[in-house]
Amino acid sequence: MKQARSILIVEDEEIIRSSLAQFLGEEGYETIAAGTVAAAVEISRQRDFHVAICDVQLPDGDGLALLRRLQQINPNVSGIIITAYGTVENAVEAFTHGAFDYLQKPVIFDDLSNKLERLFQFRDLYLENQALRRELARRDSGDELVGSSKSMKEVHEAIRRVALTNSNVLLVGESGTGKELFARTIHKLGPKKEERFLAMHCATRPVEALEAQLFGVASGTLSNGLGEHAGLFRQVGDGTLFLDEILQLPLSTQAKLLRAIEHRESLPLGGAEPVAVTCRLVAATTKELQQEVTEGRMLEDLFYRLDGVKIRIPPLRDRLDDVPELVDFFIAKHSRAMGQIVTGATSETIRLLVNAEWKGNVRQLDNAIARAVMMCDSTQLQPKDLPPDLSGLAPALPDNDDLRSAIRHYERLHIVRVLKQWPDKREAAKRLRLGLSSLYRKIEELGIDL
User: Fold this and answer.
1) Cβ partners under 8 Å of residue 423, min gap 6
2) Angstrom distance (rounded) from CA 283 to CA 311
3) pLDDT reading at 298 higher than 50
């Protein structure tokens, strides 16, 4: 789809530059023009393009080195080099520097058109192949836990260790962090992966119906019209039972759950004989259980039973390095489900996603990518495809290569976020692992407006 394809022309001769732009525009391409290395680099920091056509000799640098620089900023950029001398040595040098092809001056427009057509055919096949490879690798691994950040590696390791046992597990994390997916992974990596995995959200409902679903109803019981029901503990057998938002269980139900964990048996409603409990229990919560015990909303004995093997699932804001990998995963997932051919996202789109405030965590990102894939009219997600409410949620990273500037920028964003969440300076300093005086100094240095 040529309308969605953009080309950067880097040529210092005005006549050649304008002629190329006019011809490519008539061919249906979007063109951006630059006359120097500096202008081309600045453009590449501000927006994405698919192809860079670079002259070898530029007033402030070398076109081959420029192509390498552009591909460092955006690895998906393809390059065509323009040279005055069409020798084998020049061609080899162009290919060595990452060019797809080269043109000899004076440029023959038909030759350019044919080479661009071949380039985009190759590019589309390559991107599709890369997407398929990623998807096959993920299917072969059998592991849907996406992310290679330090915090996620720690979670992966903890899950693999605990999965090998048959221990009960407590997952703690904010809403939308994917706790059920982690629970399913624990089951799939465990010794009884062939057994059933059942999940239940412990939302508020009539206590009797809740307990009937969990523990079952004995034959002949007519209480509240409940018919005979085996209950999840019996249905899951030797498998894994996942209880989400366990703190929503009433205290009376918590007591029965405690008995099921301690004595490995449960009593169906209206029954006289206990039923053996042989499953692994994975519970999840968004809250700190110790505080809930203190405030009387959780039984202390149940807390100690569940808190022994605890895994914290980090929020997305603490694993932003994983956003590009998650985006690839969700693009493949939703493209397949919707029958779309979307193979990736532009670097501009990725930058916006990395800098967004993901209050809904991975679930919100998943929904955003689903919407973007639906709206996308090319093979790459564009910023315009994203939900409108993502725009401007956080300032972009600075458009320069200075590492200190980027670190300072991120440091300011992080401290502002923590201060919004914890207005008390002492608590914020504790969360940031800073002394109170150090926090005040950072606030002054970074110009944070309180």
Assistant:
1) none
2) 11
3) yes
pLDDT of res. 211: 86
Phi, psi of 117 (to 5 degrees): -65, -45
* Contact yes or no for 261/305 (Cβ under 8 A): yes
DSSP 189: T
What is residue 400's DSSP assignment?
S
Mean pLDDT for the chain? Answer: 84
Does this chain's domain 2-136 share its CATH topology with 150-312?
Answer: yes
Domain 2-136 has CATH 3.40.50.150: no
Query: Three-state DSSP class for 228?
Result: coil
* Domain spans in the chain, listed from the N-terminal domain onward: 2-136, 150-312, 316-390, 403-445
Comparing 412 with 176, which gets the higher pLDDT? 176
Distance, CA of 67 to CA of 287 (rounded, Å): 51
Q: Give Cα 224 to chain centroid, integer Å.
A: 45
d(CA 50, CA 242): 46
224: pLDDT strictly greater than 70: no
pLDDT in tens, 262-285: 999 888 887 778 888 899 999 999
**Confidence check: pLDDT of 89 > 70:** no
Instruction: Report whether CATH 3.60.15.10 matches the domain 150-312.
Output: no
- Per the DSSP assignment, residues forming a β-bridge with 33 are 9
CA–CA distance, 284 with 294 (Å, rounded to integer): 19
Torsion of the alpha carbons at 410, 394, 8 and 1, rounded to the nearest 10: 130
Identify the residue with better confidence: 166 or 414: 166
- What is the pLDDT, as a whole number, of residue 243? 95
What is 316-390's CATH number?
A: 1.10.8.60
- 180: which residues sit within 8 A by CB, 6+ positions away? 199, 242, 244, 284
Separation CA 104–CA 101 (nearest Å): 10
Question: Hey, which residues does 242 pair with through a beta bridge?
Answer: 199, 282
Name which of 97-101, 208-212, 430-434 the model is least confident about. Answer: 97-101
Average of pLDDT values for 419-434?
82
Contacts of 149 (CB under 8 A, 6+ apart): 319, 320, 321, 322
Of 115, 120, 121, 117, the closest CA to residue 94 belongs to: 115
